[in-house]
Specification:
alpha+beta; 7 strands; four-stranded antiparallel β-sheet
Length: about 350
């Protein structure tokens, strides 16, 4: 009778709900979010039995429906958290199962590699000899054999570790000794390849009959070579601190505001030379000019194609882009250049 009269059927509030009601009771005049009914004040709860008869029972009767709503909301939130956690747990189990299968495949592959461990030193030394054979004449073949020796050495390490795992003491000892003996030649080979010629100049000979300028010596005064009446002198190139490193200065008559930069091409086959790096290094914003003036001075750039002391012909172009985005070539000039050796 009492529970039915209070409006709650077989549903009791939790301690959190009761605590919330006690908190709301200290704030007379506030309304419950579910019913909009004001909360009874503390003075109403302290009245005598005679005075309690005059209390509006509607406020008290609406307390427990509010508790039921709060309890229902709390239950839904907990249920949602449980559902989210169960989904995460199922995904984690699937991911862990996938990782276990992948590790199992890798383990079997490693065990299989350990049975043919003796092949990897043979492949390594074969590619090592071929690398030295082609180092001075064919850079592309040299890089290929260097990559083969690197992969063979990596698989040799894996095979040696799995021999240790399988407790093959004798095979492990022999394989480890062969691997350590391969370390020193590999490092010597890597250092030698860094200074090996690429053969770029041999593959791109200077076309017959082509007139090429020679870059000025380092620290030469480029301004003295400029003649306003001779357009071929507008662009001046001089050598930098190392082969393949150059500096340029550019002079030009009246020109609107914009940006200038260099573009370099191999003269015979029209192959771009260090296109991105040169454009980035040589870009220079210019203000609008009404007379012959210097637009770029002593800006450094590097040509990476080629080797030291191996010269080939390059076409160096000066490009201009105005504020509207219109591009045009201002000048081109042929130079004999060398590449920066790695």
């Amino acid at each position: 009778m009492g529970s039915h009269f209070l409006g709650v059927k077989s549903h009791f509030p939790t301690w959190e709900s009761i605590f919330w009601v006690q908190k709301m009771s200290s704030r007379p005049g506030k309304a419950f979010p579910s019913t909009g009914t004001p909360v009874p004040s503390r003075e109403d709860s302290l009245q005598t039995p005679e005075s309690q008869k005059n209390v509006n029972t509607e406020n008290v009767c609406n307390i427990f429906p509010a508790l039921a709503v709060i309890e229902s909301r709390t239950h839904r939130k907990k249920l949602g958290k449980d559902m989210n956690w169960s989904q995460i747990e199922s995904k984690m189990k699937w991911l862990w199962g996938y990782i276990k299968r992948l590790l199992n495949v890798l383990y079997k592959a490693g065990c299989g590699i350990s049975y043919i461990w003796f092949l990897f030193p043979v492949v390594f030394w074969f590619s090592y000899v071929c690398t030295w054979r082609y180092m001075a004449t064919d850079p592309h073949t040299t890089d290929l054999y260097l990559g083969i020796s690197l992969v063979a050495g990596l698989f040799h390490v894996i095979a040696t570790l799995f021999l240790l795992h399988r407790r093959r003491a004798v095979q492990f000892s022999v394989s480890a000794i062969m691997w350590f003996l391969s370390l020193l030649p590999f490092f010597v080979q890597s250092v030698a390849i860094q200074s090996a010629p690429t053969g770029y100049a041999a593959e791109h000979p200077i076309p017959k009959g082509l007139v090429c300028h020679t870059p000025m010596a380092e620290h030469a005064d480029m301004e003295k070579a400029v003649n306003p009446e001779d357009s071929t002198t507008y662009l001046q190139i001089r050598k930098g601190i190392q082969g393949g490193i150059y500096e340029y200065s550019f002079y030009y008559p009246a020109l609107p505001e914009g940006t200038i930069w260099l573009q370099c091409y191999e003269a015979g086959k029209n192959v771009p030379l260090s296109k991105r790096e040169i454009k980035k290094k040589t870009s220079q914003k210019t203000e609008g000019t009404d007379r012959f003036t210097c637009l770029a001075e002593n800006k450094e750039f590097t040509i990476y194609e080629g080797d030291w002391d191996e010269y080939y012909a390059a076409r160096i172009e000066v490009w201009f882009k105005d504020k509207k985005g219109n591009k045009r070539k201002l000048l081109e000039k042929f130079y004999t250049v060398e590449g920066w050796s790695r």
